[in-house]
Specification:
Layout (H helix, E strand, L loop, with lengths): L3 E5 L4 H16 L4 E8 L3 H6 L4 H25 L4 E7 L2 H11 L4 E5 L14 H8 L4 E4 L12
Parallel strand pairs: 1-2, 1-4, 2-3, 4-5
Helix pairs in contact: 4-5
Length: 153
């Protein structure tokens, strides 16, 4: 049963589509819940090395968390779907897989691309690493293809 769904979420268009897909799945499976996970590639240790205090890092993290999860929380709330939001730092694929294992996730939903390293969240190869190493089913959400048979001529 796919009742415990984890969505890799960084606020990108791909991750928004992934979250909406997960919400639709959760809506049709009684008792389902979704967890959105964002993983910062800039770690607490790196911030400390650059002179930022733990308090400064946590304040920046909370600000980013509110910005990333703000609108999507309202979307899930409007659909009456239980939602958990999680913020981690480190290697995105490793943290997603670790969370999935520890919290007995039944299904991972992830976009085919994220915002990238510069924005500080999901890396381009994250979806590939997750799909190859996950112990549960993974759904990859890709861009919509706008080509029609007529445009292919």
């Amino acid at each position: 049963m796919l009742s415990n769904i984890l969505v890799a979420f960084d606020g990108s268009g791909h991750s928004l589509r992934a979250a909406r897909f997960a919400a639709k799945v959760a809506r049709i499976i009684p008792g389902s819940k979704c967890t959105l996970i964002t993983v910062l590639t800039f770690t607490r240790e790196e911030a400390r090395f650059l002179g930022a205090s733990s308090e400064e890092f946590e304040k920046a993290e909370k600000s980013l968390e509110a910005k990333i999860f703000g609108d999507i929380k309202n979307y899930f709330s409007g659909m009456n779907i239980p939602l958990i939001t999680v913020f981690r730092d480190g290697d995105p694929a490793r943290e997603i897989l670790k969370y999935a294992e520890v919290y007995h996730i039944d299904h991972i939903v992830i976009g085919s691309r994220g915002l990238g390293n510069i924005k500080g969240t999901l890396l381009g190869s994250v979806s590939s690493k997750v799909i190859h190493n996950s112990k549960c089913p993974v759904t990859i959400i890709k861009d919509k293809i706008n080509a029609t048979p007529e445009s292919a001529k």
